[in-house]
């Protein structure tokens, strides 16, 4: 994938070169302009991990805004941590190894990077995909950081700001691609908007709603200044995200 100046890069470290490449292909469907780099397999394309490939992937993904690294298994994390030790101080300071599900976390991180979020926000997006355990992040100094909180849940009650209710018309429902488009649009506004009580800027939260064709979506905000944001998201949903 081409490097994009000023955006956070995402590196997928897997024991399989095919898995890493496939994850880049998947995430690119929702984040076509983000710097997504595969670091899978050994140097001779066997199952395993490669220090050199991880080092090269981090360097390729970095455009100055930082790099988020996700790994599939414990030894991949060890390889990534070793690579951190050999980076120059400046680059190492803006690399985060995130202990989150490789697929869900990688996609969420890619969408956040595509939206122009900063490094810690991309880390937070990846961590929001974790469904159990104690996910964490290792900073550039090799020290564990506290888990970053995911987006706050919002109840479906009344809203002091604009509200609009629309019907989902997509035959396949709100699957990954339209959900990513919705999240990207929501992230372009300063005001927080919710969809059925869920933060519209969280890809995993939106997808977890499991919305199918004919579902009713309540687009709302507590911010009176969010009229344009609510209207834009509602219009997007009613348009079928270009799929209808």
TrEMBL record:
<dbReference type="InterPro" id="IPR035895">
    <property type="entry name" value="HPr-like_sf"/>
</dbReference>
<dbReference type="Pfam" id="PF00381">
    <property type="entry name" value="PTS-HPr"/>
</dbReference>
<comment type="function">
    <text>Component of the dihydroxyacetone kinase complex, which is responsible for the phosphoenolpyruvate (PEP)-dependent phosphorylation of dihydroxyacetone. DhaM serves as the phosphoryl donor. Is phosphorylated by phosphoenolpyruvate in an EI- and HPr-dependent reaction, and a phosphorelay system on histidine residues finally leads to phosphoryl transfer to DhaL and dihydroxyacetone.</text>
</comment>
<comment type="subunit">
    <text>Homodimer. The dihydroxyacetone kinase complex is composed of a homodimer of DhaM, a homodimer of DhaK and the subunit DhaL.</text>
</comment>
<comment type="function">
    <text>General (non sugar-specific) component of the phosphoenolpyruvate-dependent sugar phosphotransferase system (sugar PTS). This major carbohydrate active-transport system catalyzes the phosphorylation of incoming sugar substrates concomitantly with their translocation across the cell membrane. The phosphoryl group from phosphoenolpyruvate (PEP) is transferred to the phosphoryl carrier protein HPr by enzyme I. Phospho-HPr then transfers it to the PTS EIIA domain.</text>
</comment>
<feature type="domain" description="HPr">
    <location>
        <begin position="161"/>
        <end position="244"/>
    </location>
</feature>
<feature type="domain" description="PTS EIIA type-4">
    <location>
        <begin position="7"/>
        <end position="137"/>
    </location>
</feature>
<dbReference type="InterPro" id="IPR012844">
    <property type="entry name" value="DhaM_N"/>
</dbReference>
<protein>
    <recommendedName>
        <fullName>Phosphocarrier protein HPr</fullName>
        <ecNumber>2.7.1.121</ecNumber>
    </recommendedName>
</protein>
<dbReference type="InterPro" id="IPR039643">
    <property type="entry name" value="DhaM"/>
</dbReference>
<dbReference type="GO" id="GO:0016301">
    <property type="term" value="F:kinase activity"/>
</dbReference>
<dbReference type="InterPro" id="IPR004701">
    <property type="entry name" value="PTS_EIIA_man-typ"/>
</dbReference>
<feature type="region of interest" description="Disordered">
    <location>
        <begin position="136"/>
        <end position="159"/>
    </location>
</feature>
<keyword id="KW-0808">Transferase</keyword>
<dbReference type="InterPro" id="IPR036662">
    <property type="entry name" value="PTS_EIIA_man-typ_sf"/>
</dbReference>
<dbReference type="InterPro" id="IPR000032">
    <property type="entry name" value="HPr-like"/>
</dbReference>
<dbReference type="Pfam" id="PF03610">
    <property type="entry name" value="EIIA-man"/>
</dbReference>
<keyword id="KW-0418">Kinase</keyword>
<dbReference type="InterPro" id="IPR001020">
    <property type="entry name" value="PTS_HPr_His_P_site"/>
</dbReference>
């Amino acid at each position: 994938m081409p490097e994009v100046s000023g955006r956070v890069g995402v590196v997928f470290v897997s024991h399989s070169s095919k898995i890493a490449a496939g994850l880049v292909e998947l995430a690119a469907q929702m984040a076509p302009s983000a710097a997504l780099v595969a670091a899978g397999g050994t140097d001779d394309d066997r199952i395993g991990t490669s220090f050199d490939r991880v080092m090269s992937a981090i360097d390729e993904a970095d455009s100055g805004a930082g790099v988020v690294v996700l790994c599939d298994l414990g030894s991949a994390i060890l390889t990534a941590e070793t690579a951190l030790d050999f980076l120059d101080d400046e680059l190492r300071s803006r690399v985060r190894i995130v202990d989150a599900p490789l697929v869900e976390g990688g996609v969420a991180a890619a969408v956040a990077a595509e939206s122009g979020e900063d490094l810690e926000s991309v880390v937070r997006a990846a961590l929001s995909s974790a469904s159990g355990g104690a996910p964490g992040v290792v900073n550039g100094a090799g020290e564990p950081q506290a888990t970053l909180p995911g987006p706050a849940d919002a109840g479906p009650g009344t809203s002091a700001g604009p509200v609009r209710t629309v019907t989902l018309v997509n035959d396949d429902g709100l699957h990954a691609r339209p959900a990513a488009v919705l999240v990207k649009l929501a992230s372009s506004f300063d005001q927080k908007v919710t969809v059925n009580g869920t933060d519209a800027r969280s890809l995993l939260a939106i997808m977890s709603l499991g919305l199918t064709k004919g579902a009713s979506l309540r687009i709302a905000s507590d911010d009176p200044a969010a009229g344009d944001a609510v209207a834009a998201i509602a219009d997007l949903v009613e348009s079928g995200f270009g799929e209808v």
